[in-house]
Amino acid sequence: MPHDVLPFRAPATLSTSLSAEIEADLRQLDSLALTLNSSPREPKATNNATLLDDADRVEPEDDSFPFTLHSGSREPKTPDNDSLLNKAVGVESEDDSSETSDEEDGGAKSFEVNAPPKPRKISEKKRADFAEFELWVEQNQSRLSKRKLVLDQDDSVRRMIQDFETKRIITSPRDYQLELFEIAKNQNTIAVLDTGSGKTLIAALLLRWTIHNEIEDRSQGHPKRIAFFLVDKVALVFQQHTVIDCNLDYPVAKLCGEILDSSPDKKDLWQKAFEENMAVVCTAAVLYDCLSRSYIRMDQINLLVFDEAHHTKKNHPYARIIKDFYLDAKEGGKRPRILGMTASPVDAQVDPRMAAAQLEALLHSQIATAADPATLQQTLCKPKEEIVVEYDRIPRDWETELHQALSPIIETHFLFKKPLEYARTAAADLGPWLADRYWQLFFGEEESIKLGSKTERTLLMESAVDEYRDRKVKEVQDGSRVVANHDFLRPTLDTTSLSSKVLQLVKYLRSQFAPSGSNCDNDRRCIVFVKQRTTAMLLADLVQQPEIKIPGLEVGILIGGGRSDTEFYNRKVGFRDQVRTVLKFKSGELNCIFATSVGEEGLDIPDCNVIIRFDLCDTLIQYIQSRGRARQEQSVYVHMVEKGNKKHRSKIIQNKMHEDTLRKFCSAMPEERKLTGNNLNMDYLLRKEKNQQQYTVPETGAKLNFKQSLITLATFVASLPHPPDVNLTPEYTVTVVSGGFQCEVLLPSTSPVKTAIGRVYSSKAVAKCSAAFEMCLALLRGKYLDKHLQTVFRKQVSAMRNARLAISSKKKGEYDMRIKPDIWSVRGVPTELHATALTLVNPGALGRASFPLLLLTRQPIAQIGLFALFFGTNSSSEVRCIPLPGTLKFNEDCSPEAIAAFTLKIFSDVFSKDYDATPAELPFFLAPTREAHDFDLPATKGIKYIIDWDTVKFVQKTERIEYGFDQEPDDFFTDKYVVDPWDGSRKFVLQRRCHHLKPTDTVPEGVVPPGHRAWRVSCQTHHILNYSISLWSRSRSRMTFRHEQPVVEAQLMPIRRNLLDDNIPDEDLQPKKCFLILEPLRISPLPVRVVAMAYNLPAIIHHIDSTLIALDACKLLGLDIRPDLALEAFTKDSDNSDEHDVEKINFQAGMGKNYERLEFLGDTFLKMATTISIYTQMPDKDECEYHVERMLMLCNRNLFNNAVEIKLEEYIRSASFNGRTWYPEGLTLTKGKRTNNNVKHALADKSIADVCEAVIGAAYLTAQNENSLDLAVQAVTAVVKDKNHSMKEYSDYYAAYKKPKWMLEPTNAIQVDMAERFRERLGYSFKSPRLLRCAFQHPTYPSIYEKLPSYQNLEFLGDSLLDMVCVDHLFRRFPGADPQWLTEHKMAMVSNQFLGCVAVELGFHKAITFCSPAIQNEIMEYVFKLEEALVEAKEQAVLAGKTEEQFSKDYWVHCAKPPKCLPDVLEAYLGAMFVDSEYDFGTVRAFFDRHILPYFEDIHLYDTFANKHPVTFLANLMQLRFHCSDWRLLVKDLNEGEDGEAALLGRGGAPQVVCAIRIHGQTVAHAVAESGRYSKIAAAKKAMNMLEDMDDEEFKGKYGCQCGEGKPSGNENVEQMDEALLHGTAI
């Protein structure tokens, strides 16, 4: 059993009470929905996920709002606060219970709530499965609840809060960073902070601030100055440049000796660097040389950042720059600001106090450090313990046998002096096996060749004689031969092979990673620090040997960019190699790194459990920096010490003593130089400060003061929705202002109120209290704190659990369905008629000649779109309905009576319906035409001249064509239409007279027998006479027919009416040959060419009726939509129209396109329109309120209620052609079968809501040729019926927009400069640079710095704009693609994964302003991974014979997900550009075409993007490979029933949902997460890992599966499985 699967014991029986509980839980599961949150977007499982047997889910309309919505009606009247939001987040108030009328509601409609759906019928098997799952959860509750909070019985909420008060709840590393940033802005500063506390972020903030000041200065005419970031080593130039370049949207150069030496003119290079950049990252030596040559002067520098500033001493370039140039610069503004950064001011064994004082003096700066380092250490999780591991005394250096054999050969060679020395030391320090292994690697095959080449090349440069050169090359060859012939032993874990020091190292690694022989702990991370690069490589090689290897331990090396003479590793190590190693270490691909000092500083190495100093620290700075890597809880720092070695012991003790001395020195510094983090004596400061505020809640008397506000706010934040294992805290930013300090508090993104600013106070700590106090007041006003100052967020339940906004796709209601359009209800004697010509595009498909018919109506009919009729295999024609200009005015020559007679004759002779009707009663009329189908009918003089009046009048006066039996010529028997007056199904077209046949002759073979009863029952002989008579035997016995009359060959006309369906067998469509006598039949006066077209009328009239009914619905909504789109929007052709790649239920053939594509388009426009409307009318509201308001408008519940209110459901076309309902209504039928037009249809609530969205899509497409969005906007207003969307035209949006105050503030030079740089880069010129700046301001960046809000509101807007432009493109480009295919490919376009890639390509990551070192590191890592993926894609293109520029554009798919801020700022930029352009959607399209579309030219690269969802993969695996149907994916909320005390303490803020995957009654995998969505994904991944390598037989044997018996084996079907996983839905 896998270690992550908890055991399950199935019960023998289930009690009655337990079964009842299970049944109740099953009913509850029916309404279960996934938790909403603002985490990165994930692709949803495609329709394969419908294979799952869990309860029906109701998906929310929007996945970014994290709160549970409260059921009930909305109350838009908000005199004091936003009660709408209160209801949305489930806040109850005392006055919320009263109901209000529509009038009191200001005209807003309350939501109608249907009766709850009846419980689903659930099979006994599913009941039993769920019962076992419930019991399994109960049995394993304690292990599943990771965050279980155990409370002692004696503890109370009050006690917990008292304990909480004693903690420093307002301190975080960010406090120190911002405080230090404020200090560094005003004076030269040396930041002394521990490793991992974010010193680089402080440098980035100061660099940005300095550059901004520089831009302001230049705008005022001051000369140009630039900043320098100085490092000690060349490798750090590239490393720190990468970091700085990722965080500054300004040009930054990198310079080192190698770069300068490659330039022919250093002066030009420096001048170019100065002119083109705002900052330079370089080594101190390079800058010193530059200043010495006066390429750049000190007065041209505005900032000097000294990385690892402890190197500033004696003649180090850091010190020389200060002594020789900084001091010579004039005092005042010409000297640059200085920032030094170090974990300790000491890097040698000296007195820390003296060293610190000297460092301050040299850098002309003051040290700023934590006043209480213990607090920061606690935050950074320092090692829990430091231990000493002793090893036996190391013997003196000695030589192995291999060394002794090599030494005489190579000891005089200039390349081997240091390797020989190292090998002697290694034999003693590491052991003989590693010493010999060193030579084996040193003289490897490739290395030997390189050594020989290097020898020859070096001596050639020295002009050595050939003999000497050859001898030295031979020495290399001889040495290589000795090594190759040596008998190398395998390593063993004893002192004959390895030193005691190495043995102790291996032993300790094994104890940490695989104690007692168990499996490797993959969550552990370890760094082993050594002094030499070669040692790191040898140790890494050792632990990978089979005899030594620890199971699961994956090792790597982290070494610097240089190369020593002892090294056998010839490839140069660059910064990218180092970052690649660190990323592998973070991801777990590596879990143990052997590192030199490069791992101590600079690189952002993830927190570790174990740090081992294989070689002890020489200085305090090494000790502090290496120890700073052990930041995980329960971490260990190990000193490896030689037994009896006093020097080793003294090193450790001395470092400890020096650290203590340093801390005492820092503590003794003046208060103004301490980074307090505002952890001062709060009570003392509060007593000292006057003018403190206090608030008393009137209803309860609860009091809120400054101190209490800190606790209240911390408790509130802890209750907000958040992922497991994450502790939310408020963040405070204190700035220096006139009169003292002012603080801004920022709350997490899930808070309904994000920020508040306190008043000015003389103390930082009291300023913080003021900010917390103001925030608490804001929460009280919003009713997010109750009247007892308690949070209202008791528990985060699954989103939509109590909501009535979502509706079911299963529950149906029965509604009337309209059969006839309103136009037919207009009756009366016509004086003039409008005409629509009914013509065929391909009249030859009929198989006989035909002429168009005119449909004459009292009102004009809209232009009906082309639609197809099907006459057999490969035989079809589109129908063109052409409205003719003008009207038909009646007079003596053309009367309505004549047209009415012709129309009634069509119904009588062709369709066997005799009506007693006057012209005033007919809803429409039919008329024949003179011209063929291809004639230009609209070009004629008028309708009167198109009608074939001769035929009309002939039909009017002729009931039937008389027949004189044998008196007619042969041509009389050709091309006549004959009807059977006794059987309406028998209609014939005469072909010719058959002289050789008599009525009493037997019917020839091949003639289809007639369907009448007489032929089957009473006819003794099947001759032609009997064939022609359809009367029953009793009736025919009373009649006699001539036996001497002509026999005519005829065609029996097919009776099929639904020519709209292309899935009818050919035999039902083709005329059948037969032989008749005419005496019992009637010859119709209707010409055959008229009848041939009339036979198409049922399908044509049905289609016209359906179209006109859809147009009536549009008219009801006030929308003028194109007829074909209107019909498509109201067409539902099956019960599961919204499901693709599955068998259709109750499919209605011949209905044409259903609403699904339009619904997909309309849903997207609805989201965009409501988003724009909300943003427009609420520019100063926060994102939380935006989500609530939008959800209430676009939710299916609102659309459904609004549709039902106006009976829109009656207009939906859910039934295909019915041969009995196309006839006109309201006429007196005298002959023929009567019809019932009172038709009902069953529709799901969601289907009705979907049609509303489809109407929006139809409106959007109707006006696309005019490039207008007005009609779509009207459609949104019509279907949402909400006060927040009353727009009638697209221009109404911007007309209603009022710029917020922050946009109207004056623009500074920094913002203007940013807008100009973006214009040059992206082409769009911002009229409001402040708007652009806002789009890149992260929520962690204090708004107090620039008085700008964060990008969240613009991101909310941009998200909907991006969705719309992507869907619009896909819809136009792929007109035949189904909605599922469109959705899957849209997922790729709008995924965070892709948007992060585009953001980096456009350089957006450099422009983000934030105050979070975590974000800084995440961005840098993601940029590195993306660049790596791009390089690999280009290499693959070259290997495939293409150019680098032809690389595959989907390279980003293989990268990890980006930091969420990257896709967020891209969407925010779109939103900002849209607002700045005065809501011009064309700017969004232009951005899409230029920056997004190039990635999707080959759209099929992304066919599998959506199908990579783990749940989809699992479903495919179970269905296609194993053919298993007895598996379940079950979900349960572990927080259900949590008590109020636990909720109050914040446990409710982090829900826990367990998902278990069960196969044939066995729980095979489970996962616990903060929502059902994430627990399902995690559980599916685990199950996939277990199952994907199984073959079919193994699966059957393990789980007893017999579901696939009789089907192809899974192994035979693997190819099908792979095909399903590798390819998406076809277009």
Automatic annotation (TrEMBL):
Positions with biased composition (Acidic residues): 92-105
Residue ranges of every copy of the Helicase C-terminal domain listed in the record: 501-676
Residues covered by the Helicase ATP-binding domain: 180-363
Entry GO MF terms: ATP binding; DNA binding; helicase activity; metal ion binding; ribonuclease III activity; RNA binding
Entry keyword annotation includes Zinc: yes
Stretches assigned to the Dicer dsRNA-binding fold domain: 709-799
Keywords, comma-separated and alphabetical: Antiviral defense, Antiviral protein, ATP-binding, Helicase, Hydrolase, Magnesium, Manganese, Metal-binding, Nucleotide-binding, Repeat, RNA-binding, Zinc
Record domain DRBM: where: 1509-1589
Chain ranges of the RNase III domain: 1117-1264, 1315-1478
Cofactor(s) annotated in UniProt: Mn(2+); Mg(2+)
Residue span of region Disordered: 37-123
Domain (PAZ): residue spans on this chain: 950-1085
GO terms of biological process kind: defense response to virus; regulation of defense response to virus; siRNA processing
Protein name, UniProt field: Dicer-like protein 1
Organism of origin: Apodospora peruviana
Source lineage: Eukaryota, Fungi, Dikarya, Ascomycota, Pezizomycotina
